[in-house]
Amino acid sequence: MAGFFNGVFTWLLPEFCSPADCRSNQGDPRSTVFSEKRVGNLHRVVEELFYRGYAIERLQSLGLNRWVAGIIPLLIFAFGHGTNGWANVVLALALGALLTVFYLWRRDLVANMVGHFTIDLLSVLLPRFLSHS
């Protein structure tokens, strides 16, 4: 499934990148185009497995309340996205909270991975759609 989403993402992304933008971003590790093609969807799978699947379950097995067990990895997840400033931390906190609540409710990591992919895809495509209007 991750391979399918990776294919869709890398197929669609160049369509929303002007040739000048794509050329100017090649080799820049902060570039969305460069990063998405280099890393693919593996980080989405790993983040969901680690932050939601493993961390929450492990903290609960140590005796923590399910909400406390959800908040601790959520904060680590959010601050781990702080490389691009505080706005990114706040956004990761809000969207991570949504994914955490969904995981605590349904316990469905595959759905969380698809949701994580969708959020990331929209965060790349929406600004490109809106800037071309």
Model description:
- With 133 residues, the chain is an all-alpha fold.
- 79% of the residues lie in helices and 0% in strands.
- It is built from seven helices and no strands.
- Helix 4 packs antiparallel against helix 5 and helix 5 (66-80) packs antiparallel against helix 6 (86-106).
- The longest helix is centred in the last third of the chain and has 23 residues, at 109-131.
- Residues 13-21 have low confidence and may be disordered.
User: What proportion of the residues form beta strands (DSSP E)?
Assistant: under 5%
Straight-line distance between termini: 32 Å
Low-pLDDT windows of residues: 13-21
Structural class assignment: mainly alpha
**Which word captures the global form?**
globular
Biggest sheet features? none
Count of DSSP E strands?
0
Total DSSP helices: 7
The rounded Rg comes to 16 Å
Give me the strand/helix succession. Answer: HHHHHHH
Helix content: over 70%
Overall mean pLDDT score? 79
